[in-house]
C-alpha cells in the first residue's frame, strides 16, 4: 500500500481500503491538512520515504490515508493516528478536531512535521505538544521513529483491556471516565495544570480543555474518591466573569484615572515651601517657586521627604494611589480588594480511580472530600 502513495487520491479510497483490512487489525490513520490532493500525495510520499514505512510495519501498523472527519467516523477501526504536515500551524486544526471528539480523544496520536516547530504563544494555548503522544520534527527525526511508534503501541495496548463505556451512562459520567482513562492509558499519576494564557483560569488540563472547562468533572471525580486534588497555585479572578486574566495597575485614588505619574516632593528649608519637584525644576537646576531662591545642595538647601502620585486628570496628589484590576475578558475594573481568589489543583488518580477506568463502573455515592 505504501509503495504506491502517489496514486492515492486522498481520502476518497478510505472505505475501499478499510474493506481490505480485517476487523481489529492494528491500523494507523494517516491524516494531513494539505490544500490539494497533489500536495497531500507529495507530503505523505516524502514522509514515508526512506525507512519510515518499514518502521511502521515493524510495529505492526497498517497505514491508511483519510481525513480527520473520517478518522473520527471510523475511530473504532484505527488503533493510532499519525498527523502529517509541513508545520505545526498546519496540523493544529487536525489536533483540535480529533482531541475534541469523544471518539478519538483517547486515540494515540503522533505528529510528523517536515519542519521543526518554533515556539509561539498562538499554538494551541500553552503548548501544542501536550495534545499528542509523540512528535517527529524535521527530516532527521523521520529516520528514527521507533520510540514514538512504540509509545503509540503501548498506549493502544493499555486501552484494549478496558471495558466498554455503557451507552446508558449520563454524558457527565462518560466525560469523567474518559479523563480517568486518559490518565491510565498514559500512565499518569496526576493530571497537572499547565500555564495557559488562552484559558480563562490561566491554566489548562490538556486535552480536555478543547471541549470545555474540565474542572467541574475533575472536582466531581474528587468527590467520588476517584481523584485526589492538591493545591499547586492560586489565581485572582474577576468578580464579574470569574476570568483570571487580570491586569493590575495603580490608578488615582480620587478619580481612578490611569493617567498618573510618580514624582519626588521637595521641601525648601529656607521658606518652608513643599511641592512636587516638577514645580522646582528650572532647566538643569532647582529654583523655589515660592521665594525664587536656587536650591543647590540636598540636605543643606532642601530635602526630598517623600514621593507622591500625581493625577494628570484631576490634579490629585497623594502618597499612594489605588490598585485596580482590568479584566481582559469582560472589561470590568474591580478594585484589588474585590477580586476573588481561586485555587489551582493537580489531580492524583487513586486506586479506586484506576479500577473505575478499567471496569467502566462509577461509584454511586460520593465520598467525603
Amino acid at each position: 500500500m505504501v509503495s504506491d502513495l502517489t496514486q492515492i487520491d486522498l481520502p476518497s479510497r478510505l472505505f475501499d481500503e478499510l474493506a481490505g483490512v480485517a476487523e481489529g487489525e492494528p491500523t494507523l490513520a494517516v491524516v494531513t491538512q494539505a490544500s490539494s490532493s497533489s500536495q497531500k500525495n507529495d507530503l505523505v510520499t516524502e514522509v514515508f520515504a526512506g525507512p519510515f514505512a518499514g518502521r511502521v510495519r515493524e510495529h505492526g501498523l497498517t497505514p491508511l490515508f483519510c481525513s480527520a472527519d473520517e478518522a473520527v467516523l471510523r475511530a473504532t477501526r484505527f488503533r493510532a493516528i499519525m498527523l502529517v504536515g509541513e508545520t505545526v500551524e498546519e496540523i493544529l486544526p487536525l489536533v483540535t478536531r480529533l482531541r475534541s471528539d469523544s471518539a478519538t480523544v483517547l486515540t494515540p496520536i503522533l505528529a510528523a512535521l517536515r519542519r521543526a516547530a518554533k515556539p509561539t504563544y498562538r499554538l494551541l494555548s500553552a503548548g501544542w505538544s501536550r495534545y499528542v503522544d509523540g512528535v517527529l520534527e524535521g527530516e532527521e527525526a523521520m529516520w528514527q521513529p521507533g520510540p514514538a511508534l512504540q509509545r503509540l503501541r503501548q498506549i493502544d495496548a493499555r486501552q484494549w483491556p478496558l471495558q466498554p463505556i455503557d451507552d446508558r451512562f449520563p454524558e457527565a459520567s462518560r466525560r469523567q471516565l474518559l479523563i480517568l482513562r486518559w490518565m491510565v492509558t498514559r500512565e499518569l499519576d496526576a493530571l497537572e495544570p499547565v500555564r495557559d494564557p488562552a484559558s480563562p483560569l490561566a491554566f489548562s488540563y490538556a486535552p480536555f480543555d478543547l471541549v470545555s472547562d474540565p474542572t467541574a468533572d475533575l472536582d466531581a471525580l474528587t468527590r467520588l474518591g476517584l481523584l485526589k486534588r492538591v493545591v499547586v497555585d492560586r489565581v485572582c479572578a474577576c468578580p464579574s466573569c470569574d476570568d483570571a486574566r487580570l491586569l493590575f495597575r495603580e490608578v488615582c485614588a480620587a478619580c481612578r484615572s490611569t493617567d498618573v505619574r510618580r514624582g519626588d516632593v521637595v521641601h525648601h528649608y529656607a521658606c518652608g515651601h513643599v511641592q512636587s519637584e516638577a514645580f522646582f525644576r528650572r532647566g538643569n537646576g532647582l529654583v523655589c517657586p515660592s521665594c525664587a531662591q536656587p536650591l543647590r545642595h540636598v540636605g543643606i538647601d532642601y530635602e526630598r521627604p517623600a514621593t507622591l502620585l500625581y493625577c494628570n486628570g484631576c490634579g490629585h496628589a497623594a502618597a499612594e494611589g489605588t490598585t485596580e484590576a482590568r479584566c481582559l475578558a469582560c472589561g470590568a475594573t474591580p478594585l484589588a480588594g474585590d477580586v476573588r481568589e481561586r485555587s489551582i489543583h493537580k489531580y492524583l488518580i487513586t486506586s479506586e480511580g484506576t479500577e473505575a477506568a478499567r471496569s467502566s463502573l462509577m461509584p454511586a455515592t460520593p465520598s467525603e472530600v
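Residues 171-185 form the longest helix (15 residues). The CA atoms of residues 148 and 241 lie 41 Å apart.
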